Amino acid sequence: MQFLYPSFLWALLAIAIPIIIHLFYFRRFKKVYFTNVKYLEEIKEETSSRNRLKNLLILLSRILAVIGLVFAFAQPFIPQGDSIKKGNNAVSVFIDNSFSMNAIQNEIPLIDIAKEKARQIIKAYSEEDKFQILTHAFEVRHQRLVSKEDAIALIDEIEISPSVKKLSKVINRQKQAINNQEENEIVYLISDFQSSINDLLVYEDSTAEVNLLPLQAVQEKNISLDSVWLESPVPMINQSNKLLVKITNHSDEEVEGVRLSMLKDGQEKPEGIFNIPARTSVNDTINLSLLKAGWHKAELKISDFPVQFDDRYFIALNVPENIEVLAINNTIDNRYLTALFKGLNLYSLTNQNQNRVDYSKIKEYDLIILNDLTEISSGLASELDNYIVNGGNVLLFPSSTASIQSYNNFFNSIAANNLTTLESEKKTVSYLNQDEFVFKDVYEYVGRNITLPTSSKNYGLTNYQNRAQESLLRYRDGSNYLVKYVRGDGHLYVCTSPLDNEINDLALNAEIFVPMLYKMAIAATESQKIGYTIGTDEVIEAENKISNGDLVYTIKGVEEFIPGQTNLGNKILLDVNNQIDTDGFYSLGLDNESVSDLAFNYDRTESNMEVTSSSSLEDLAQNNNINLLDASLNADFSTYINEKDKGITLWKWCLIFALIFLAIETLLLRVWTER
After folding, report:
1. CA distance 536 to 538
2. Residue 32 has pLDDT above 60, yes or no
3. Bridge partner residues of 455 (DSSP)
4. CATH superfamily, with its number, for domain 89-219+612-646
5. CA gyration radius for the chain?
6. Model confidence over 219-239: pLDDT tens digits?
């Protein structure tokens, strides 16, 4: 047996008080009245013997009562672990409130069991201790230490949340809150410890005591609609746009008859029935026809039960009304370019002389074609660089009389290879890169039926390894005809031969020229973001349409809020900061007008319902000096926590014994009367 506060044992000197009282109080002389002198000696002997026994019992009761009280304040205990907590505590309790905690254990949701265990943990500590309550949401109000009463109130407010974090991030957030706050730093994690979030493979910090409290229910089978994406970077009107869908079977058994449907424009349409093998994903393609420009919303759904948070996926996509193309020419417009874009309904071509370019409107174009420029001025080069970085596409056809130095100054600014001398040699293109977006899925087979371009003059290109050049078309001798460079969010395409029919027959080659320009105009480094993930995609990039400094963007769903906003020139970053917690469609507005539609979906991290096994948790605890608590105990969990921190405490028994001996003393004084 040990004492939590052994210094109180000095109070045992108080035993002298009842002894002193006994020596002086019970030695006082008392009058004895009698009528017969004959019996005086007999009465005296009998009374003295009885009083001596009574006084000794009273003395013993008082001494034992004092000892019991002193021991109660010294708090004796029987040690159960290697160390005993003394002093004040900073206690952090994490309660897993993700979707998986909706699972049932003995007809009670795991989240309710977790909250009750958390309350009992808090009640096990004193009023002087400080507490942090943390959930997956990482709310600001959960980042500080609070009193015992406030901690219990915070627990009562916890509800299921779509947010989900890795446990390593959780424990780091807990340690940040309690670090250097009190003498003892204690961490509790109450969770079902799903394998998808449990990354506590190694725990090296020894400053805080870590306790794992696993709550696990019957594992459910689950099918999840994981993701949906467009095959093309930009959806097009009046075309069959390919929508790719990924569905996963997370169970150990094959699942048959999974139905996929799509709800669009108020109508639900079946898209297929799938049989999915165990632990396997399947991909399917949906042909999405869009008959008008503007924003379109769709909801894809699968049939699955009982886990349903991942059974639907919302998408919002924008079909451009017009693809704007700017051709910057040396002297005269290229009639082949003009004729080509007149035949494409969605495309609008603007021709400008290189001396009359309106730089302020450059950002409005989807593709800029530099045709036959003798030189590229520093001003134009700077504007084009900024345009490309922000997602623009530039196609360059050099002039046969080009100032190579001015061209190379522009190329150097965007990390592209340099032009060398103009070679007068007839060459024919023999290689077409079908893996790159511009020519991908354009031709079923590239064979003798496709005529590739021929040129009589072309510039050479340096081959610096750090310029990240990608070849789209190559001559038979291996030299490049058309290359691509990625810079920022945009692209620069360089043709090494001028767009002059007497030099280069590309403009006459419709089967190459038309799809090439068509797809360059809609090329992007990333596909259009058609769906965001709650808790992961906290920052949204949008086109900056703010002309008045007093205007702000708003996001409207069930409620309307103002996101954080960072102006980046042509772009603006919107920080939703955990203000979206329900999947579905939202509207991005500016000055009371809708700018775009947004689709938010729940995180699929917990779609795999597999949990960390008990043996794995035991190994984790043993190898990292972590306590693994038993959540199956039906007794008051507060007692369990007390015994963990302080051993088997005996102070209550000491207090009970003190009261018992005080009661015995009272009985001796009142019941045992003298005669």
Report:
1. 6
2. no
3. 427, 504
4. von Willebrand factor, type A domain (3.40.50.410)
5. 41
6. 778 999 999 999 887 788 877
